[in-house]
Design goal:
Elements: H1 3-6, H2 13-16, E1 30-39, E2 42-51, E3 57-63, H3 77-83, E4 87-91, H4 111-130, E5 135-145, H5 148-158, E6 162-168, H6 175-182, H7 189-199, H8 208-214, E7 218-223, H9 231-243, E8 248-253, H10 266-273
Helix pairs in contact: 4-5
């Protein structure tokens, strides 16, 4: 979630192996093309993976976790999405890898401006997809893990091209509030939740007001044992949003940790993506 947490050496797999549990990243019928996305103040190196066959295809832009993420972040999603008939676009964060611009991590203090900047980059990626002849610009969406939850909400607020979003262990807490939960990671989980309830103070970028009026369907896949996202409180917020008319759905995997690395969540994703899929 915060840049600080994901830079911890013990968690590098969360930046790369972001989806599909233990599903192998094996060969998949795909054609890969590279290019650059023109974003405000940066050119973002990107890779577009296309299914075999005749388009136009629906498309998914992959959102990244925190840290200096490249196209490797979210690569585990590519085979599964391509198999389902989706083109998949990934890119290096600004200032990272082959992208220009300045990299800035996200903190509680700067999250309002930084989530906006990252959301703008993702909105630019949607525009890049929509302009391509192989892509059906009416069927574009977003998918990503962890920090990507906030960024996808910001991107969808900016771009009417976003028709759906899938967040894998993304948070609907304000950024600063979520960091307060992260900092309790050394405690047993029950004690952490008790303490979180005592100290949690809303601060930083808050996705909930945007979700309440966003208008597109969003799917939130959460881990019951997540020590970086307060799943129980996120469920409370999601239920409140849904009661208020937001098109939010969620599923909690009770024994899963951050990233859902042990879970096959694709049946849930299939049900959600059905209206947008070609296969």
């Amino acid at each position: 979630m915060s840049a600080r947490t994901f830079m911890v050496a013990a968690l590098p797999a969360l930046l790369i192996g972001c989806g599909g549990g233990e599903r192998p990243i094996g060969p998949s019928p795909t054609e890969s093309r590279s290019g650059f996305i023109e974003a405000e103040g940066a050119r973002l190196r990107c890779v577009l993976d296309l299914p075999v066959g005749n388009g136009p295809f629906p498309g998914v832009v992959i959102g990244q976790g925190s840290g200096r993420a490249t196209t490797a972040d979210g690569a585990a999603y590519v085979p599964a999405l391509v198999e389902r008939g989706f083109a998949v676009l990934r890119y290096d964060k600004r200032g990272v890898g082959g992208s220009t611009g300045t990299y800035r991590g996200v903190s509680a203090a700067n999250s309002v401006t930084q989530i906006a900047e990252l959301g703008g980059d993702m909105a630019a990626a949607l525009a890049y997809l929509a302009a391509r002849p192989e892509i059906d610009g009416r069927r574009l969406g977003l998918m990503g893990t962890s920090q990507a939850g906030w960024v996808m909400v910001a991107a969808a607020e900016r771009s009417p091209l976003a028709r759906f979003a899938v967040a894998v262990t993304g948070s609907v807490e304000p950024v600063g509030t979520n960091i307060q939960y992260e900092e309790l990671g050394g405690l047993p989980i029950e004690e952490a939740y008790q303490r979180f309830g005592e100290v949690a103070t809303p601060s930083g970028y808050d996705p909930a007001p945007v979700l309440e009026t966003l208008g597109i369907p969003t799917l939130w896949l959460l881990g019951g044992q997540d020590r970086l996202v307060p799943t129980r409180d996120c469920v409370r917020i999601l239920n409140r949003l849904r009661d208020a008319g937001a098109r939010t759905t969620f599923r909690v995997y009770p024994e899963a940790e951050h990233g859902l690395l042990s879970e096959d969540f694709w049946p849930e994703v299939d049900a959600f993506l059905g209206p947008f899929a070609t296969r």
